[in-house]
């Protein structure tokens, strides 16, 4: 009875399932949704990326900002990232192409962004099926090695996003704003893992904390 | 960006003094009502209050079919899924952002290598060239398509009136520059205003129209009102919206998408299932409102009318 309710944990689970429900409803139960299959594909892809980014934020938020509860949620966030990626892929195979593998083979062959998306999906699939405690114990050191793939997956998803929009990524002309925002966040989350940067940010945090503590007059 | 990409940035206020907006708008309405009366017998009634604020207009009943027997998309579909980056890159957000965009009165200047340059108002064009119903497929380069019943007249008739000189080889089209009314125009990374171009023989093909209406009524702002180009055998972005300048030139004009990504969006941009976009397949498309994909047709199904324009050309090279 006196067990503390883990609000954050509830929030993560609730947030993921509500997001999925909302995305289904706004696309398929909404008369104003004119091109629902394509829009649903875009929405689930973006949801997958957001959950993967949140998962990637777990470690630095725990070590630099010392929000340990959030760091504990990184596994669940990553698994939900996988869930949205799976729904995204299923929408592509089933809703978009009706499992017509003749077309699917052709479109995969000729569509560069799908290569990146598919590579990211296979990796996140590997992480998801090894995310159980048992697997972690079984795999020992290899588990950690395998799960470093998270640093590769997020950039692949960002490239996948960049390659879909009508834009020129070299000159940054066209519809680059959104992939650029997500790309910057991923880059930042990777950079803060570099020991020097991480230490500098921890020092900055302790400095700010000591300053704010001295606010009380003597 | 190419050397002939012009950014004239003509503001609407320079074309029409603001005091004229309302009176001419009313004139246009009454003119459209009388002119539309005859057409009403043939097609279903449509809500005349095109920008009635939040309340959605009553959709006209769809009785249109293209020459291949495909039913036209509904008015609701056509007016709620628009690629119109001048407003927003979200195709579902254009209708709301464009709702207050003034499309009448509207003027378009036809000039350059012509004997009789002239600035026309849309109502003048409607009187001179008597818009007819053209039910065209529109294939977006992103892989979706619509069937749209336009009201328009062949561009060739306007060109005939202004008399291109012997030097003229191409037509350059330019969209209005109105960043205060079109929020997307404030975003960086685009050489606004939107610019497009056609070879003169493409422009003179009977399929090429200037549309001033849709679904038997006015041309909604999100669909390119006051006046737009429609070139049905090319990817949708070639059909520039909200035109204010049509210039006859003796060079191949730069186009907005070609200026941004020249290896991806060629000058021709003919619909072609055999020539993929460098980053995605163009073999199939989704017709809005359908569950199954369709095979994309060569020249969007207009091969008989336009294939001769490209005889002897390598379409892989001239994408």
Can you tell me the number of structural domains of chain B? 1
Shape of chain A: globular
Secondary-structure element string of chain A = HHHHHHHHHEEHH
Largest interface: A-B, 33 and 34 residues
Structural class of chain B: alpha+beta
**What is the count of DSSP helices of chain A, taking H or I runs of 4+ residues?**
11
Which residues of chain B form runs of ≥5 with pLDDT under 50? 8-56
SSE-based structural type of chain A = mainly alpha
Q: Helicity level of chain A, as a percent range?
A: over 70%
Q: Please name the fourth-level CATH homologous superfamily of chain B.
A: Oxidoreductase, molybdopterin-binding domain
Principal-axis shape of chain B: globular
The CATH architecture of chain B would be Alpha-Beta Complex
Total number of helices of chain B = 9
Number of strands of chain B: 12
The low-confidence runs of chain A, each spanning 5 or more residues with pLDDT under 50, are: none
Main beta sheet of chain B: 7 strands, mixed
What's the structural blueprint in terms of helices and strands?
The complex is a heterodimer of chains A (218) and B (319).
Chain A (H helix, E strand, L loop, with lengths): L6 H22 L7 H28 L4 H4 L2 H23 L4 H10 L1 H18 L3 H7 L1 H7 L2 H13 L4 E2 L4 E2 L2 H15 L3 H19 L5
Antiparallel strand pairs in A: 1-2
Chain B lengths: L11 H4 L4 H23 L32 H4 L15 H5 L8 E6 L5 E4 H8 L2 E8 L4 E11 H8 L7 E6 L19 E5 H4 L5 E6 L2 E2 L9 E3 L12 E7 L6 H5 L23 E4 L6 E2 L7 H4 L13
């Amino acid at each position: 009875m006196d067990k503390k309710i883990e609000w954050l944990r509830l929030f993560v689970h609730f947030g993921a399932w509500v997001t999925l429900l909302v995305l289904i409803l706004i696309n398929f139960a909404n008369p104003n949704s004119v091109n629902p299959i394509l829009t649903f594909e875009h929405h689930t892809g973006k949801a997958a990326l957001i959950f993967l980014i949140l998962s990637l934020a777990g470690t630095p938020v725990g070590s630099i900002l010392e929000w340990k509860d959030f760091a504990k949620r990184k596994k669940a966030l990553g698994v939900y990232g996988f869930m949205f990626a799976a729904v995204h892929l299923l929408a592509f195979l089933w809703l978009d192409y009706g499992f017509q593998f003749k077309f699917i083979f052709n479109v995969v062959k000729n569509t560069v962004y799908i290569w990146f998306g598919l590579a990211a999906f296979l990796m996140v699939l590997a992480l998801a099926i090894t995310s159980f405690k048992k697997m972690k114990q079984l795999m020992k050191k290899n588990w950690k090695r395998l799960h470093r793939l998270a640093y590769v997956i997020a950039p692949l998803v960002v490239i996948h996003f960049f390659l879909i929009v009508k834009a020129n990524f070299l000159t940054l002309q066209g519809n680059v704003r959104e992939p650029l925002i997500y790309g910057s966040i991923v880059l930042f989350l990777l950079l803060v893992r570099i020991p020097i940067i991480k230490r500098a940010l921890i020092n900055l945090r302790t400095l700010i904390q000591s300053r704010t503590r001295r606010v009380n007059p003597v | 960006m190419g050397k002939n990409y012009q950014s004239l940035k003509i503001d609407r206020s320079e074309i029409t003094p603001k005091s004229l907006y309302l009176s001419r708008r009313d004139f246009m309405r009454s003119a459209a009502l009388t002119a539309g009366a005859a057409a009403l017998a043939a097609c279903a009634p449509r809500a005349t209050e095109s920008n009635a604020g939040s309340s959605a207009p009553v959709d006209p009943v769809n009785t249109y079919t293209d020459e291949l027997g495909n039913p036209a998309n509904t008015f609701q579909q056509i007016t709620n899924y628009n690629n119109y980056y001048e407003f927003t890159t979200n195709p579902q957000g254009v209708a709301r952002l464009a709702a207050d965009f003034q499309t009448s009165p509207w003027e378009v200047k036809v000039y350059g290598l012509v004997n009789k340059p002239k600035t026309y108002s849309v109502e003048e064009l409607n009187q001179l060239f008597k818009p007819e119903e053209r039910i065209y497929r529109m294939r977006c380069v992103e892989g979706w398509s619509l069937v749209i019943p336009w009201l328009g007249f062949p561009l060739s008739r306007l060109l005939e009136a202004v008399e291109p000189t012997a030097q003229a080889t191409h037509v350059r089209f330019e969209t209005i520059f109105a960043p205060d009314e079109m929020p997307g125009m404030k975003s960086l990374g685009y050489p606004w205003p939107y610019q497009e171009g056609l070879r003169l023989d493409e422009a003179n093909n009977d399929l090429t129209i200037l549309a001033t209406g849709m679904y038997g009524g006015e041309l909604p702002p999100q669909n390119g009102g006051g006046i737009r180009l429609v070139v049905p055998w090319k990817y949708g972005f070639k059909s520039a919206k909200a035109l204010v300048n049509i210039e006859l030139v003796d060079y191949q004009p730069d186009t907005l998408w070609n200026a941004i990504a020249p290896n991806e969006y060629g000058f021709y941009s003919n619909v072609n299932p055999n020539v993929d976009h460098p980053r995605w397949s163009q073999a199939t498309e989704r017709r809005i409102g359908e569950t199954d994909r369709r095979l994309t047709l060569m020249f969007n199904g207009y091969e008989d009318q336009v294939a001769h324009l490209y005889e002897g050309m390598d379409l892989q090279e001239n994408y």
